[in-house]
Amino acid sequence: MSKTVIITGASSGFGKAMAEKFAAGGWNLILTARRKEKLEDVVANIQKQYGVKVLSLVFDIQNRADVFKYLGNLPTEWQAVDVLVNNAGLALGRDAFQDANLDDWETMIDTNVKGLLYASKAVLPYLTKQEGHIINIGSTAGKEVYKDGNVYCATKHAVDAITKAQRIDLLPLHIKVTSIHPGAVDTDFSLVRFKGDAAKAAAVYAGYTPLSAGDIADTAWYVANLPKHVCINDLVITCTAQGNSTTIHKD
Ligand code: NDP
Ligand code: 8X3
Question: Which of 78, 125, 154, 194 has the fewest beta carbons closer than 10 A?
Fold first, then answer.
């Protein structure tokens, strides 16, 4: 029988690549994001290529009521959820603490931390029935703080802590919990962070070969398809040119 994965933030970047990877592997998909048209394009492309079922849900993960309305009330035929990938997230701004914008901070906290908590809690009854798996997308920014990264780094440190806490608390439910912490990956991430400044975003990935969204999809696929008794706890992945959050060798 086909397995089912929920991927939040599936309208672009990692989420889109993971949706394609899991569909290619025959999994059914529940995909979420805010941008309806982008999500519909992802779904149409997958349905054209792969014979899997896809349920798309359009809502803002910051909105607690909507998260529970959609993810906490899945249609009966969609309730056998094997994996939840908490991927939706963003950075907004790269400013010193003293200059940073409070609205940016709140959006990052509400999305990266509270959204992940809401989604995990809403899906938990389904994951419990399946003895499923939560995969949280953290970041190298959750391992080391870097200059002008303050609150984004804090949200990803929170993802790291929540992952560890979930793994301990959910042990009696036989639910695996994994975090994947990528370094620099060329997606829309920096375009969003720099609020549409394409030159600033491109500069982040210039002079070396960064990871691609496909690399992260391959990693998520790997950790989701291990034997039942094996759980990758914590996986940090960077491109070969990156040594840690702050050190990238550019030729
Ligand atoms: P993208 O900007 O390409 O994708 C982000 C996804 O998150 C989109 O699908 C977006 O959908 C969704 N999203 C953002 N805010 C919300 C919201 N409020 N409600 C619902 N969905 C939301 O970036 P990436 O794919 O790179 O980022 C994915 C995750 O990976 C993030 O958590 C990011 O922090 C993390 N990460 C990224 C790295 C990188 O270098 N790219 C490295 C390490 C971690 P929509 O806008 O349609 O709602
Ligand atoms: C995204 C990677 O280095 O911009 O989490 O924080 S970084």
Answer: 125
As for how many domains the chain has, the answer is 1
Distance CA 81, CA 101 (A): 38
Ligand 2 center–CA 159 separation, angstroms: 13
Q: What is the pTM of this model?
A: 0.99
Query: What CA–CA distance (Å, rounded) separates 16 from 18?
Result: 5
Domain assignment of residue 14, yes or no: yes
Q: Are 150 and 191 a contacting pair, CB within 8 Å?
A: no
For ligand 2, the distance from its centroid to the CA atom of residue 151, given in whole angstroms, is: 12
Question: In the predicted model, is pLDDT for residue 115 greater than 90?
Answer: yes
Q: Could you tell me the residue range of the domain that residue 99 belongs to?
A: 4-237
State yes or no: pLDDT of 198 exceeds 90: yes
Does the pLDDT of residue 1 top 90, yes or no?
no
